[in-house]
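Reopening: C-alpha coordinates for the beta-D-ribofuranose complex, inputs below.
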Amino acid sequence: SKKLLVDVDCGVDDAQAIMLALAAPNVELLGITCVHGNITVENVCKNTLRVLQACNKLEIPVFKGAAKPILGNSLNAGHFHGQDGLGDAPDPNAPGLDLVQKEGAVSAMIRIVNENPGEVSLVATAPLTNLALAVRMDPSLPSKLRGLYIMGGNTESRGNTTVCGEFNFAADPEAAYIVLNDYLCPTYLACWEFTCYSKLSWEFCDAWLAQDTDKARFMAQIFQHSIEVSQSKRFQKEFVAGTGFISCDSYAMAAAVDDSFITESDHYPVSVELTGTHTRGMMIVDTVGFLKNARKAFIMKKVDMEKFKQMMMAALK
Ligand code: BDR
Ligand code: CA
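Re-run output (same inputs, fresh job):
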Protein backbone atom coordinates (compact mmCIF):
# COMPACT_ATOMS: atom_id res chain seq x y z
CA SER A 1 0.00 0.00 0.00
CA LYS A 2 0.99 3.64 -0.47
CA LYS A 3 1.97 5.59 2.59
CA LEU A 4 0.87 9.20 2.75
CA LEU A 5 1.60 11.98 5.18
CA VAL A 6 -0.60 15.01 4.66
CA ASP A 7 0.02 18.62 5.73
CA VAL A 8 -3.14 20.75 5.71
CA ASP A 9 -4.73 24.07 6.67
CA CYS A 10 -8.08 22.30 6.72
CA GLY A 11 -10.48 24.44 4.76
CA VAL A 12 -13.13 23.06 2.48
CA ASP A 13 -10.93 21.77 -0.34
CA ASP A 14 -8.41 20.33 2.14
CA ALA A 15 -11.36 18.42 3.64
CA GLN A 16 -12.27 17.15 0.18
CA ALA A 17 -8.67 16.10 -0.45
CA ILE A 18 -8.44 14.25 2.89
CA MET A 19 -11.70 12.43 2.14
CA LEU A 20 -10.42 11.49 -1.32
CA ALA A 21 -7.32 9.91 0.24
CA LEU A 22 -9.30 8.09 2.92
CA ALA A 23 -11.50 6.49 0.26
CA ALA A 24 -8.68 5.50 -2.07
CA PRO A 25 -7.81 1.79 -2.21
CA ASN A 26 -4.32 0.77 -1.06
CA VAL A 27 -3.59 4.06 0.65
CA GLU A 28 -2.42 4.28 4.23
CA LEU A 29 -2.70 7.71 5.83
CA LEU A 30 0.08 7.77 8.43
CA GLY A 31 -0.90 11.09 9.92
CA ILE A 32 -2.15 14.60 9.29
CA THR A 33 -0.03 17.58 10.26
CA CYS A 34 -1.75 20.94 10.69
CA VAL A 35 -0.48 24.43 9.95
CA HIS A 36 -1.82 28.01 9.93
CA GLY A 37 -3.39 29.12 6.66
CA ASN A 38 -7.06 29.30 5.80
CA ILE A 39 -7.68 29.77 9.52
CA THR A 40 -5.70 29.54 12.80
CA VAL A 41 -3.79 26.34 13.41
CA GLU A 42 -6.10 25.50 16.36
CA ASN A 43 -9.11 25.69 14.05
CA VAL A 44 -7.26 23.69 11.45
CA CYS A 45 -6.79 20.92 14.06
CA LYS A 46 -10.50 21.09 14.98
CA ASN A 47 -11.57 20.96 11.35
CA THR A 48 -9.26 18.04 10.59
CA LEU A 49 -10.70 16.08 13.51
CA ARG A 50 -14.22 16.81 12.26
CA VAL A 51 -13.35 15.45 8.82
CA LEU A 52 -11.83 12.31 10.36
CA GLN A 53 -14.91 11.87 12.55
CA ALA A 54 -17.19 12.15 9.51
CA CYS A 55 -15.17 9.32 7.93
CA ASN A 56 -14.94 7.18 11.10
CA LYS A 57 -11.17 7.51 11.00
CA LEU A 58 -10.38 9.25 14.28
CA GLU A 59 -7.58 6.72 14.85
CA ILE A 60 -5.42 8.65 12.33
CA PRO A 61 -3.09 10.88 14.38
CA VAL A 62 -3.43 14.64 14.03
CA PHE A 63 -0.48 16.89 14.90
CA LYS A 64 -0.42 20.64 15.50
CA GLY A 65 2.27 22.63 13.69
CA ALA A 66 3.31 26.21 13.02
CA ALA A 67 0.94 28.99 14.06
CA LYS A 68 2.57 31.63 11.87
CA PRO A 69 4.72 31.89 8.76
CA ILE A 70 8.51 32.14 9.04
CA LEU A 71 8.28 35.93 8.65
CA GLY A 72 5.36 38.23 9.27
CA ASN A 73 1.79 37.40 10.14
CA SER A 74 -0.65 34.75 9.01
CA LEU A 75 -3.14 35.35 6.27
CA ASN A 76 -6.68 34.08 6.51
CA ALA A 77 -9.17 32.85 3.91
CA GLY A 78 -12.36 33.01 5.98
CA HIS A 79 -14.12 34.95 3.24
CA PHE A 80 -13.95 31.82 1.10
CA HIS A 81 -13.93 28.89 3.54
CA GLY A 82 -16.13 30.44 6.27
CA GLN A 83 -14.93 32.10 9.47
CA ASP A 84 -14.31 28.69 11.09
CA GLY A 85 -12.58 27.46 7.92
CA LEU A 86 -15.24 24.86 7.31
CA GLY A 87 -18.29 26.67 6.00
CA ASP A 88 -19.58 27.99 9.35
CA ALA A 89 -21.77 24.93 9.83
CA PRO A 90 -20.79 23.99 13.39
CA ASP A 91 -21.26 20.49 14.76
CA PRO A 92 -22.17 20.30 18.49
CA ASN A 93 -20.65 16.79 18.59
CA ALA A 94 -17.32 17.83 17.09
CA PRO A 95 -14.30 16.14 18.68
CA GLY A 96 -12.26 18.20 21.16
CA LEU A 97 -8.70 19.38 20.77
CA ASP A 98 -7.65 16.86 23.44
CA LEU A 99 -7.50 14.35 20.59
CA VAL A 100 -4.58 16.23 19.02
CA GLN A 101 -1.27 14.41 19.61
CA LYS A 102 1.17 15.78 22.18
CA GLU A 103 4.03 15.49 19.68
CA GLY A 104 4.37 18.54 17.44
CA ALA A 105 3.81 18.40 13.67
CA VAL A 106 7.42 19.06 12.64
CA SER A 107 8.83 16.35 14.96
CA ALA A 108 6.13 13.94 13.82
CA MET A 109 6.90 14.60 10.17
CA ILE A 110 10.61 13.89 10.72
CA ARG A 111 9.90 10.79 12.83
CA ILE A 112 7.34 9.25 10.47
CA VAL A 113 9.49 9.74 7.37
CA ASN A 114 12.55 8.31 9.13
CA GLU A 115 10.54 5.28 10.30
CA ASN A 116 9.55 4.59 6.67
CA PRO A 117 12.56 5.63 4.57
CA GLY A 118 11.83 5.82 0.84
CA GLU A 119 8.17 4.98 1.30
CA VAL A 120 6.29 8.13 2.28
CA SER A 121 4.63 10.51 -0.17
CA LEU A 122 4.23 13.90 1.45
CA VAL A 123 1.20 15.89 0.34
CA ALA A 124 1.10 19.59 1.23
CA THR A 125 -2.12 21.50 0.68
CA ALA A 126 -1.29 24.53 2.82
CA PRO A 127 1.36 27.17 3.48
CA LEU A 128 4.69 25.30 3.59
CA THR A 129 5.89 26.43 7.04
CA ASN A 130 5.96 22.95 8.63
CA LEU A 131 7.84 21.47 5.66
CA ALA A 132 10.41 24.26 5.69
CA LEU A 133 11.03 23.86 9.43
CA ALA A 134 11.28 20.09 9.06
CA VAL A 135 14.01 20.26 6.40
CA ARG A 136 15.98 22.68 8.57
CA MET A 137 15.77 20.26 11.50
CA ASP A 138 16.55 17.20 9.35
CA PRO A 139 18.25 18.05 6.03
CA SER A 140 18.15 14.37 5.04
CA LEU A 141 14.35 14.34 5.13
CA PRO A 142 13.67 14.98 1.40
CA SER A 143 16.05 12.21 0.33
CA LYS A 144 13.92 9.77 2.35
CA LEU A 145 10.64 10.76 0.68
CA ARG A 146 9.08 8.84 -2.18
CA GLY A 147 7.69 12.08 -3.55
CA LEU A 148 6.37 15.52 -2.65
CA TYR A 149 2.98 16.73 -3.90
CA ILE A 150 2.11 20.38 -3.42
CA MET A 151 -0.96 22.44 -4.13
CA GLY A 152 0.47 25.90 -4.52
CA GLY A 153 2.20 28.46 -6.64
CA ASN A 154 1.22 29.84 -10.00
CA THR A 155 2.52 29.69 -13.54
CA GLU A 156 0.97 32.70 -15.27
CA SER A 157 1.45 35.31 -12.52
CA ARG A 158 -2.27 35.17 -11.80
CA GLY A 159 -2.82 35.39 -8.10
CA ASN A 160 -5.79 34.62 -5.91
CA THR A 161 -4.41 36.36 -2.83
CA THR A 162 -2.15 39.12 -4.14
CA VAL A 163 -2.02 40.32 -7.72
CA CYS A 164 0.33 37.49 -8.64
CA GLY A 165 0.50 35.34 -5.51
CA GLU A 166 -1.34 32.09 -4.91
CA PHE A 167 -2.56 31.69 -1.31
CA ASN A 168 -0.30 28.87 -0.03
CA PHE A 169 2.86 30.50 -1.38
CA ALA A 170 1.82 34.07 -0.53
CA ALA A 171 0.99 32.99 3.04
CA ASP A 172 4.64 32.00 3.62
CA PRO A 173 6.94 32.92 0.72
CA GLU A 174 10.13 32.06 2.65
CA ALA A 175 8.83 28.57 3.41
CA ALA A 176 7.80 28.04 -0.22
CA TYR A 177 11.28 29.16 -1.30
CA ILE A 178 12.98 26.75 1.12
CA VAL A 179 10.79 23.84 0.07
CA LEU A 180 11.18 24.37 -3.68
CA ASN A 181 14.95 24.74 -3.32
CA ASP A 182 15.77 22.15 -0.65
CA TYR A 183 13.38 19.23 -1.16
CA LEU A 184 15.61 17.12 -3.38
CA CYS A 185 13.00 14.53 -4.26
CA PRO A 186 10.51 14.15 -7.13
CA THR A 187 8.20 17.15 -6.68
CA TYR A 188 4.80 17.62 -8.30
CA LEU A 189 2.95 20.92 -8.31
CA ALA A 190 -0.76 21.54 -8.72
CA CYS A 191 -0.56 25.28 -9.38
CA TRP A 192 -3.46 27.72 -9.14
CA GLU A 193 -4.01 28.30 -12.86
CA PHE A 194 -3.96 24.56 -13.59
CA THR A 195 -6.65 24.00 -10.96
CA CYS A 196 -8.70 26.83 -12.48
CA TYR A 197 -8.57 25.16 -15.89
CA SER A 198 -9.60 21.84 -14.35
CA LYS A 199 -12.83 22.87 -12.63
CA LEU A 200 -15.59 20.45 -11.72
CA SER A 201 -18.95 21.38 -13.23
CA TRP A 202 -21.83 22.36 -10.97
CA GLU A 203 -23.77 19.42 -12.43
CA PHE A 204 -21.03 17.14 -11.14
CA CYS A 205 -21.10 18.85 -7.73
CA ASP A 206 -24.88 18.37 -7.51
CA ALA A 207 -24.61 14.67 -8.28
CA TRP A 208 -21.65 14.39 -5.92
CA LEU A 209 -23.54 15.88 -2.98
CA ALA A 210 -26.77 14.05 -3.81
CA GLN A 211 -25.26 10.70 -2.82
CA ASP A 212 -27.32 9.22 0.00
CA THR A 213 -24.55 8.92 2.60
CA ASP A 214 -23.55 10.62 5.86
CA LYS A 215 -20.32 11.76 4.22
CA ALA A 216 -22.23 13.49 1.42
CA ARG A 217 -24.50 15.19 3.96
CA PHE A 218 -21.44 16.35 5.92
CA MET A 219 -19.86 17.71 2.74
CA ALA A 220 -23.06 19.47 1.67
CA GLN A 221 -23.07 21.36 4.98
CA ILE A 222 -19.45 22.47 5.03
CA PHE A 223 -19.40 23.16 1.27
CA GLN A 224 -22.45 25.45 0.97
CA HIS A 225 -20.60 28.67 1.83
CA SER A 226 -17.79 28.11 -0.71
CA ILE A 227 -20.32 27.17 -3.38
CA GLU A 228 -22.04 30.52 -2.88
CA VAL A 229 -18.76 32.45 -3.03
CA SER A 230 -17.60 30.50 -6.09
CA GLN A 231 -20.85 31.21 -7.90
CA SER A 232 -20.75 34.92 -7.16
CA LYS A 233 -20.16 37.12 -10.18
CA ARG A 234 -17.21 38.78 -8.53
CA PHE A 235 -15.32 35.53 -7.97
CA GLN A 236 -15.99 34.31 -11.50
CA LYS A 237 -14.81 37.57 -12.93
CA GLU A 238 -11.72 37.96 -10.78
CA PHE A 239 -10.23 34.54 -10.97
CA VAL A 240 -11.49 32.18 -13.55
CA ALA A 241 -13.02 32.05 -16.94
CA GLY A 242 -15.82 29.51 -17.02
CA THR A 243 -17.97 28.24 -14.25
CA GLY A 244 -17.55 25.32 -11.87
CA PHE A 245 -15.84 24.46 -8.59
CA ILE A 246 -12.09 24.39 -8.04
CA SER A 247 -11.19 21.72 -5.49
CA CYS A 248 -7.54 22.86 -5.58
CA ASP A 249 -6.09 20.58 -2.95
CA SER A 250 -7.72 17.45 -4.32
CA TYR A 251 -5.50 17.55 -7.45
CA ALA A 252 -2.30 17.29 -5.42
CA MET A 253 -3.85 14.48 -3.38
CA ALA A 254 -5.10 12.59 -6.45
CA ALA A 255 -1.60 12.72 -7.95
CA ALA A 256 -0.12 11.26 -4.77
CA VAL A 257 -2.76 8.55 -4.60
CA ASP A 258 -2.56 7.42 -8.24
CA ASP A 259 0.68 7.50 -10.27
CA SER A 260 -1.21 7.55 -13.58
CA PHE A 261 -3.37 10.57 -12.65
CA ILE A 262 -1.03 13.15 -14.23
CA THR A 263 -1.07 12.64 -18.01
CA GLU A 264 1.08 15.64 -18.99
CA SER A 265 3.46 17.85 -17.04
CA ASP A 266 6.22 20.38 -17.58
CA HIS A 267 9.57 19.89 -15.88
CA TYR A 268 11.20 23.25 -15.20
CA PRO A 269 13.34 24.92 -12.56
CA VAL A 270 11.09 26.78 -10.14
CA SER A 271 11.59 29.31 -7.39
CA VAL A 272 9.69 31.92 -5.42
CA GLU A 273 9.95 35.72 -5.44
CA LEU A 274 10.75 37.04 -1.95
CA THR A 275 10.79 40.77 -2.62
CA GLY A 276 9.02 43.06 -5.04
CA THR A 277 6.36 45.71 -4.99
CA HIS A 278 3.68 43.33 -6.27
CA THR A 279 5.41 40.02 -6.71
CA ARG A 280 6.40 38.73 -3.25
CA GLY A 281 5.17 35.14 -3.02
CA MET A 282 4.86 34.67 -6.78
CA MET A 283 6.24 31.44 -8.20
CA ILE A 284 8.93 31.72 -10.86
CA VAL A 285 9.04 29.16 -13.67
CA ASP A 286 12.28 29.19 -15.63
CA THR A 287 11.33 27.99 -19.10
CA VAL A 288 14.57 29.34 -20.62
CA GLY A 289 17.36 28.12 -18.33
CA PHE A 290 18.52 31.21 -16.43
CA LEU A 291 18.20 29.71 -12.97
CA LYS A 292 21.24 27.45 -13.08
CA ASN A 293 20.96 26.26 -9.49
CA ALA A 294 17.22 26.04 -9.11
CA ARG A 295 15.55 22.69 -8.70
CA LYS A 296 13.15 21.30 -11.24
CA ALA A 297 9.61 20.34 -10.39
CA PHE A 298 6.90 18.61 -12.37
CA ILE A 299 4.15 21.15 -13.06
CA MET A 300 0.82 19.49 -13.76
CA LYS A 301 -0.63 20.37 -17.15
CA LYS A 302 -3.16 17.64 -17.86
CA VAL A 303 -4.74 15.06 -15.62
CA ASP A 304 -7.21 12.23 -16.06
CA MET A 305 -10.45 14.07 -15.20
CA GLU A 306 -12.57 10.92 -15.45
CA LYS A 307 -10.38 9.32 -12.82
CA PHE A 308 -10.60 12.50 -10.74
CA LYS A 309 -14.39 12.44 -10.78
CA GLN A 310 -14.38 8.76 -9.80
CA MET A 311 -12.03 9.45 -6.89
CA MET A 312 -14.17 12.41 -5.78
CA MET A 313 -17.38 10.33 -6.00
CA ALA A 314 -15.76 7.54 -3.99
CA ALA A 315 -14.72 10.07 -1.32
CA LEU A 316 -18.36 10.52 -0.24
CA LYS A 317 -19.48 6.90 -0.57
C1 BDR B 1 -5.13 27.16 -1.69
O1 BDR B 1 -5.48 28.15 -0.72
C2 BDR B 1 -6.39 27.62 0.20
O2 BDR B 1 -7.40 28.53 0.50
C3 BDR B 1 -6.92 26.36 -0.39
O3 BDR B 1 -7.24 25.42 0.63
C4 BDR B 1 -5.80 25.87 -1.27
O4 BDR B 1 -4.89 25.08 -0.54
C5 BDR B 1 -5.55 27.68 -3.05
O5 BDR B 1 -4.83 28.81 -3.40
CA1 CA C 1 -5.47 24.23 1.65
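The first strand starts at residue 2 and ends at 8. The mean pLDDT is 96. Marking as resolved unless the reporter disagrees.
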